TrEMBL record, chain A:
Origin: domain of life: Eukaryota
Keyword DNA-binding: no
GO annotations of cellular component type: MICOS complex; mitochondrial crista junction
Lineage: Eukaryota, Metazoa, Chordata, Craniata, Vertebrata
Any one biological process term the GO annotation gives: cristae formation
Family that this chain belongs to: Belongs to the MICOS complex subunit Mic13 family.
Name this polypeptide is given: MICOS complex subunit MIC13
From TrEMBL, chain B:
Membrane topology field: Single-pass membrane protein
Family affiliation: Belongs to the MICOS complex subunit Mic10 family.
TM region(s), chain numbering: 18-36
Known function: Component of the MICOS complex, a large protein complex of the mitochondrial inner membrane that plays crucial roles in the maintenance of crista junctions, inner membrane architecture, and formation of contact sites to the outer membrane.
Keyword 4Fe-4S assigned: no
Keyword match Transport: no
InterPro entries in the cross-refs: Mic10
Principal location class: mitochondrion
Quaternary context: Component of the mitochondrial contact site and cristae organizing system (MICOS) complex.
Name the record gives this protein: MICOS complex subunit MIC10
Length: 111, 76
């Protein structure tokens, strides 16, 4: 009797866990529109540091305080784009200058 | 669409993409471990579906500016 019930119970548990995971994802707006998604991301980012602190207190560990790194991916990307484009716009002039310098150098070598 | 509005919409698209990719990945891992004997294909399916949902949301969001919405009055 128990041997027959066990696979059923296992299947029911698995379906319960999977269904619960899908429900949690749906309920927290992760599968909805783009506004809900970005709201959920903001909430998650705000909730992570206090959650880490609580877990550390629970385990009695003391993580070294993570320095507040002022890194903005948006700023880094924008400055990278500006740098590349300015280098590209200067490239022909620079190439011309380096060519004349190289020619002069070779001429002096050949003298 | 003004540049600022476009920038905001693209930011939302990126954030939404990250969220949906993560969710799809997570659900794919759950299903793979529970039902499909730790094969890789549910994970790929979940991530792909998540990315597809994000793409579709982004597409609708960008197109919505050019559509006439029901709550806008039509002047005669």
């Amino acid at each position: 009797m128990a041997a027959k019930l066990l696979p059923v119970v296992k299947l029911a548990t698995k379906v319960g866990i999977a269904g619960g995971a899908v429900y949690v994802a749906y309920d927290s707006g992760l599968l909805g529109g783009s506004e809900q998604g970005s709201e959920a991301l903001q909430k998650a980012r705000a909730a992570v540091p206090p959650a880490i602190e609580e877990w550390m207190k629970y385990f009695g560990l003391q993580l070294p305080t993570i320095p507040n790194i002022e890194f903005s991916p948006v700023q880094a990307w924008n400055s990278g784009v500006r740098w590349s484009i300015s280098r590209l716009s200067e490239a022909p002039t620079k190439a011309g200058e380096m060519t004349t310098q190289g020619v002069q150098y070779v001429r002096e070598l050949l003298k | 669409m003004s540049e600022r509005e476009l920038g905001r919409k693209l930011d939302r698209c990126l954030a939404d993409g990250v969220i949906k990719l993560g969710t799809g990945l997570g659900l794919g891992i759950v299903f793979s471990v529970l039902f499909f004997k730790r094969h890789t294909w549910p994970i790929s399916l979940g991530s792909g579906a998540g990315l597809g949902m994000a793409y579709s949301n982004c597409q609708n969001d960008l197109r919505s500016h050019y559509l006439l919405h029901r709550n806008q009055k039509v002047e005669r």
